[in-house]
Amino acid sequence: MLTKRLIACFDIRNGMVTKAHKFQDNIDIDEAQAVAKRIYADQIDEIIFYDITASADKRKIDLDTVRNVAKHVFVPFTVGGGIRDLNDMFEVLKAGAEKISIDSMAVRNPDIIRQGSLAFGKQCIVLSMQVKRVEESAKIPSGYEIAIDGARVFTGMDAVAWAKRGEALGAGEICVNSIDCDGTHQGYDIDITSMVADAVNIPVIASGGAGKPEHLLKVFSRTGASAGIISSMLYSPKMDKNYSVREIKEFLNANGQPIRPYIG
To answer: Total domain count for the chain?
Structure first.
């Protein structure tokens, strides 16, 4: 049986890890490389780094911070934010990333998914989706709409349809970021995570809302997600309790979820 993955997510702004509530009201935590070193030492399975203002500011990704983080982590490292073309993808990979996350630019130019998949292999291309619950309609039958630019712009696109199109274009993985659950610490959006996982045949990452190990147990047991993103519960001062990767893995193992064990 394939093990589930724990992925630490760093939202980066000006070289700092920052945390938000529903994509707003950010507070800075610490320098990105310092947080990455701590989480890597605690045996996280993977790391994702989002330069959260690059797309909205229409600038390139912060490659210096990518390099600084990559020097200190030796697990799969995904980077996103401000990726506009194949050259940007190449620069991110050259800076030390192993996967590229594309989000807003993929909506504006879906062919970038195909181009990236052909150039670097589909295993490198992660389609990240910002999704928000809306009223079901003929245009948005899933009841979840795609947003871009840090949830500032809504597209009228159906989330499940976009996930299926992304897979067809060559994405190797899909990350479902719930705008409604982001920063709430109340658990993942089970409905949209399940819908996307059922609709595609590539790995799906659940993102947004994790506050305690029970939330990971719920999303893994009730959806086809192969990985869960955790961030606030690892390091945010807004949390009543921060958990170690070891605590989370031991809880999941004790509750029958196949997870890479903590060694030590």
So the answer is: 1
pLDDT at 131 over 90: yes
Tally of CB atoms within 10 A around 63: 18
Cβ neighbors of 94 (< 8 A, separation 6 or more) are none
Report the half-sphere exposure of 108 (CA within 13 A, side-chain side): 14
| Per-residue model confidence as pLDDT tens digits over 90-109 | 999 999 999 999 999 999 99
Tokens of 78: 């995904």
Question: In sequence order, what are the residues at sequence separation of 6 or more whose Cβ sits closer than 8 angstroms to the Cβ of residue 65?
Answer: 12, 15, 32, 33, 49, 51
Does 260 reside within a domain? no
Domain of 27, CATH number, reads 3.20.20.70
In a domain, 262, yes or no: no
DSSP 87: H
Answer whether residue 120 is part of any domain. Answer: yes
pLDDT bin (cut points 50, 70, 90) of residue 61 is confident
CB atoms within 10 A of CB 141: 11
Residue 27 near residue 247 (C-beta atoms within 8 A): no
pTM for this model (two decimals): 0.92
Whether 264 is in a domain gets the answer no
pLDDT band at 33 (very low <50, low <70, confident <90, very high): confident
For residue 122, the enclosing domain spans: 5-254
